[in-house]
Amino acid sequence: MALSSFDIDAPRWDQSTFMGRLKHFFNITDCRTALLPDSRLDEAKALVESCRAGSIPPGTTAEQLYYAKKLYDSAFHPDTGDRMNLIGRMSFQVPGGMAITGFMLQFYRTVPAVVFWQWVNQSFNALVNYTNRNAASPITPKQIGVAYITATSTALATAVGLNLYTKKAPPLVARWVPFVAVAAANCVNIPMMRQQEILNGIAVTDENGNKLGHSTKAAVKGIAQVVISRVTMAAPGMIVLPIIMQRLEKYKFMQRITFLHGPIQVMLVGGFLIFMVPAACSLFPQRCSMAVSKLEPELRDSIRSQYGDSIRHVYFNKGL
């Protein structure tokens, strides 16, 4: 490969297929990148920007460029190019998610424990949602606060209500309460945190990246896909793991090490998330598309008056 013509922004894998996106997200959600210092990430960013400018440092290999792009994609926002906070990065989803989810699944019996761990989880989710929003649609501190309080209240009301309602239900049903609460909260947290996109629309472009306007329908489609991805991300660990733990706890050796049940669940959740984080992110393309015919009438008519039928689809960043 001639590095003089290296296009660092060209997808390494085919983003139109699930397998191509899966390889891409396995690459950028690699939790090892979360351990790297900011100085190393800044070096990667500098190399990516040099490559974009057509001035690749002498002696640089293609693999070094690919690795720099991996670090750049894992740590810098696709809209702004700013370094994202560590906890909000998708590369932190496995270590952060496994700890919180593991303890939510372990401490589900008492109301105080349910309240505490649901609050911790929604605080984590709010930061992740804010970090991975479409940054072209700014959100005010007041809107962030309302979104956080609404989502946290939804999760707590769902979890505490179901926890009390399932007191006489089979034990396994009670173990599934955390997942129902997480799913309900995601349906509130993400749209609320990204409400500006729904109210004012997000920027849509043609295939070459030329801006065509703002669309609220595109925003709704993108946010709906993110909600589905997040619920899917949590589902296997929070639905299957309770079944596994209920069966394991019948064995005498497990009854002797009850103090290790929490750490065991944390590690098992981590095993699920290592695969589910990239798999869930891969369900839909990050560069989402929408037919011009499905846009709001004003934008649709504006595009057709300027470009006729030459533009049939618009494109936008749905966020993660």
Count structural domains. Answer: 2
The residue-averaged pLDDT reads: 85
Which of globular, elongated, flat, extended, rod-shaped describes the shape? globular
User: Counting H and I runs of at least 4 residues, what is the number of helices?
Assistant: 13
N- to C-terminal separation? 32 Å
Strand order of the largest sheet: 1-2
> Strand percentage, roughly?
5-15%
Which structural class do you get from the secondary structure elements?
mainly alpha
Write the H/E string, N to C: HHHHHHHHHEEHHHEHE
Q: How many β-strands, per DSSP?
A: 4
Which spans have pLDDT < 50 for at least 5 consecutive residues? none
Largest sheet geometry: 2 strands, antiparallel
Q: C-alpha Rg, in Å?
A: 22 Å
Helix fraction bin: 55-70%
Membrane topology: Multi-pass membrane protein
Pfam family, one: SFXNs
Keywords: Amino-acid transport, Membrane, Mitochondrion, Transmembrane, Transmembrane helix, Transport
Organism: Haplochromis burtoni (Burton's mouthbrooder)
Task: Provide key terms for this protein.
mainly alpha, 2 domains, two-stranded antiparallel ribbon, amino-acid transport
